[in-house]
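Holo prediction — iron/sulfur cluster.
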Amino acid sequence: MIKNALSGFVTAWQGLMLTIRHFFSSKKKRNVVPVSSDNYFKKLEGTNTIQYPKQQLPVPEVGRYQLDVEIDDCIVCDLCAKVCPVDCIDIDAIKATEAIGQTSDGTTKRLYAAKFDIDMAKCMYCGLCTVVCPTECITMTNQYDRSVADLGALTYAFSEMTAGEAAEKRALLDKQLAEKQAAKLAAMQKKEEGKA
Ligand code: SF4
Ligand code: SF4
């Protein structure tokens, strides 16, 4: 019994000493070092936290953080939305009546993105969308601190089209389709008349 009590006392004393040691060492400031430093994971002394957001620990340039889309380089192929395991990319494509330009890698653009939303509250940061993108326009940035008070604010809208512009492009496409259909019918009718 005395042995157990002694052992308990020694254990409690060791725990207390550890706490006291960390209490005094916490006065030291943690150095902010780049992740490439050999010492990055060895900074065990000093404060557990840093003076965030005034002071921020550097993160790797290529990390799995907030997504960004360079919409001018997007060909609206929908591959990223299809591969997303949690369906957090919502794209509304409108076919253009003619080529509408080129991306920076020379790919011809034939679709407008009337909507290109990413719900970062649902995103699980797997990075699959960035892997399949043929023009590499959807990327993960080193931004990790976009805190919001409203969950809806975590849905990022990348489309630059207004509702009016989208309606105009849809109307142009409908008109072109109607004209093509009419031309096809006229050609068929002419063919039938030729047979008669
Ligand atoms: S990182 Fe993964 S979960 Fe997030 S949008 Fe891309 S594919 Fe979807
Ligand atoms: S995969 Fe790339 S090009 Fe295709 S819709 Fe997504 S972001 Fe745009």
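READOUT: Strands lie at 67-69, 89-95, 111-119, 138-140, 155-157.
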